[in-house]
């Protein structure tokens, strides 16, 4: 199998004059971008970086970040991207955990880097505004190429992402070139991408979705249009100006884009393929996207940093809530809750834990320096995801939440996702999150947090649930109207904040 450096070089040789990357005024062809990538790889080599070393980045989605990613692939260095909003202690932890040889940052992350104790002990590079006493990326663009252009093979480490760390410290997820290339090829195939597609680089390059978009476009001689920070108006303008052909976003970003007043005036006709991942999409948003874009293809992709693809559904509107069937590189099962036996397969429609086969081409091999996490998640050749779901009579997977999100009320297991999808269909509901709050009688009480777009009462929402046929024990007993539903930077619903009363009432 090709390593990723060879993969990029193949696109340079096929399509040297095609536009490869756009970032504001920066527009580079494959040939021009390759020359800059070669220079950056040469500068890394001159700085002492060698095959297998870690480079930590704390950058937004900008052309320099994409350039660094590819330079690492050529040099055989492991790119280790962190959230550009990372705090000093998070930077300290990750620098120590991976033994980084270089830290690269920009103005938005400079204060956190300055507050990091370990940052001062490693080589640093600034991107954009010049930081006093720190080398600048501009200097690297004129460096001589590395002595050897192709320094990695398919079995070398390519990338290490850190999980979000909602409980405890984040876990490093190392992935080899062959893992990354297989995932990118599957992404191209399952999204039916054609040569010269154009996508928006909105999903951050510290997130598996952002990395997949970057790699997939390079494999098909496509164009990656950088969006450093999500802003609905900027995104809508970029779609029209750059004639974007496909989008791959989390549901929250789609929601915010459709809700922006510019949406109705924007020419979205170039977008023919939609994809989403990262969280389930409620039925209300599915319907709005279909009506707005009239997509030729609407893909629900379900996976993780550890194993890129679990399942895929190429017609997300066909059966809202369905994550489809196993991807082309994967096998998927649902096993009984609290069972750690891969053979304890749940019955159709029985809710359990979702597990995937670690022999798949896209699967990682274990966490970085975390045998405790390996022991919990990697069992008899299967990855126990911690997600809950069930498989229906047609063999389609439905993801219902996390094992930790399950509401147990009066001895009944209740999944919040089903209730959220139902409530999202009410015209007055903008966003909804359902959690279980402590209750002295029931153990947990089903509680719905609602962000409204128009006035609505608890009684009206309860009537909506009754009319839908929702089982009585699943109906929310309390409705709380909030200004915002808390989410992570990549759109994941943060139910724990609602449980901890970290919200603002409307």
CATH superfamily of the domain at 406-499: ANL, C-terminal domain
Rg, alpha carbons: 23 Å
Helix content: 25-40%
CATH first level of the domain at 406-499: Alpha Beta
> What is the β-strand count?
26
Q: State the low-pLDDT regions, or none.
A: none
The main β sheet shows up as: 10 strands, mixed
In CATH terms, what is the architecture of the domain at 406-499? 2-Layer Sandwich
- Helix count from the secondary structure assignment: 15
- Based on CA inertia axes, which overall geometry fits? globular
The average pLDDT is: 94
End-to-end CA span: 55 Å
Structural class: alpha/beta
Strand residues, percent: 25-35%
If you consult CATH, what is the topology of the domain at 406-499?
A: GMP Synthetase, Chain A, domain 3
Polypeptide structure, described:
Pfam families: AMP-binding, AMP-binding_C. GO terms for molecular function: ligase activity. Residues 418-492 form the AMP-binding enzyme C-terminal domain. InterPro entries: AMP-bd_C, AMP-bd_C_sf, AMP-binding_CS, AMP-dep_synth/lig_dom, ANL_N_sf, ATP-dep_AMP-bd_enzyme. Keywords: Ligase. It is a single chain. Helices cover 30% and strands 26% of the residues. The chain is globular. The strands form six sheets. Strands 12, 13, 14, 15, 16, 17, 18, 19, 20 and 21 form a ten-stranded mixed sheet that branches. The protein has a domain at 406-499: 2-Layer Sandwich (GMP Synthetase, Chain A, domain 3). The model has no long low-confidence stretch (mean pLDDT 94). With 506 residues, it is α/β, with parallel strands linked by helices. Helix 2 (30-46) packs across helix 3 (63-75) and helix 10 packs across helix 11 (283-293). The chain contains 15 helices and 26 strands.
């Amino acid at each position: 199998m090709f390593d990723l450096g060879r993969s990029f070089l193949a696109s340079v040789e096929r399509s040297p004059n095609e536009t490869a990357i756009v970032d504001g005024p920066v527009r580079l062809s494959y040939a021009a971008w390759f020359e800059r990538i070669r220079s950056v790889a040469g500068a890394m080599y001159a700085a002492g970086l060698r095959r297998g070393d870690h480079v930590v980045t704390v950058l937004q989605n900008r052309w320099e970040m994409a350039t660094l990613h590819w330079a690492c692939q050529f040099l055989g260095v492991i790119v280790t991207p962190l959230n550009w909003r990372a705090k000093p202690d998070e930077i300290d932890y990750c620098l120590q955990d991976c033994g980084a040889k270089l830290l690269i940052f920009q103005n938005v992350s400079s204060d956190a880097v300055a507050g990091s104790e370990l940052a001062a002990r490693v080589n640093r590079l600034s991107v954009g505004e010049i930081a006093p006493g720190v080398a600048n990326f501009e200097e690297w663009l004129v460096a001589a190429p590395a002595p050897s252009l192709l320094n990695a093979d398919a079995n070398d480490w390519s990338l290490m992402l850190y999980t979000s760390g909602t409980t405890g410290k984040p876990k490093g997820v190392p992935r080899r070139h062959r893992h990354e290339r297989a995932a990118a090829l599957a992404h191209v195939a399952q999204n039916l991408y054609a040569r010269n597609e154009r996508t928006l680089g909105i999903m951050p390059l510290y997130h598996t979705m952002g990395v997949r978009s970057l790699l997939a476009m390079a494999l098909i001689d496509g164009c990656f249009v950088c969006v450093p920070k999500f802003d609905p108006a900027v995104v809508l303008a970029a779609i029209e100006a750059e004639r974007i052909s496909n989008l791959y976003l989390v549901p929250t970003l789609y929601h915010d884009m459709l809700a922006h007043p510019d949406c109705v005036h924007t020419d979205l006709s170039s977008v023919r393929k939609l994809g989403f991942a990262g969280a389930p999409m409620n039925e209300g948003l599915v319907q709005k996207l279909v009506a707005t874009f009239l997509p030729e293809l609407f893909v629900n992709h379900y996976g993780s940093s550890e194993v890129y693809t679990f399942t895929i559904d190429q017609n997300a509107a066909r059966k809202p809530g369905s994550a489809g069937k196993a991807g082309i590189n994967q096998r998927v099962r649902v096993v009984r809750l609290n069972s750690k036996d891969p053979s304890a397969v749940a019955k159709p429609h029985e809710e359990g834990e979702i597990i995937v086969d670690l022999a798949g081409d896209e699967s990682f091999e274990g966490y970085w320096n975390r045998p405790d996490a390996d022991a919990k998640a990697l069992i008899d050749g299967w990855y126990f995801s911690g997600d809950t779901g069930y498989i229906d009579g047609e063999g389609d997977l439905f993801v219902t939440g996390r094992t930790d999100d399950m509401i147990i009320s009066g001895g009944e297991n209740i999944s919040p996702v089903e209730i959220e999808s139902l409530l999202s269909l009410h015209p007055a509901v903008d966003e909804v999150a359902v959690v279980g709050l402590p209750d002295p009688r029931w153990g947990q009480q089903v509680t719905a947090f609602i962000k409204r777009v128009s006035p609505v009462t608890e009684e009206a929402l309860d009537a909506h649930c009754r009319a839908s046929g929702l089982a009585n024990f699943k109906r929310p007993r309390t409705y709380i109207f909030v200004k915002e539903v808390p989410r992570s930077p990549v759109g994941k619903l943060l139910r724990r904040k609602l449980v901890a009363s970290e919200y603002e009432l409307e």
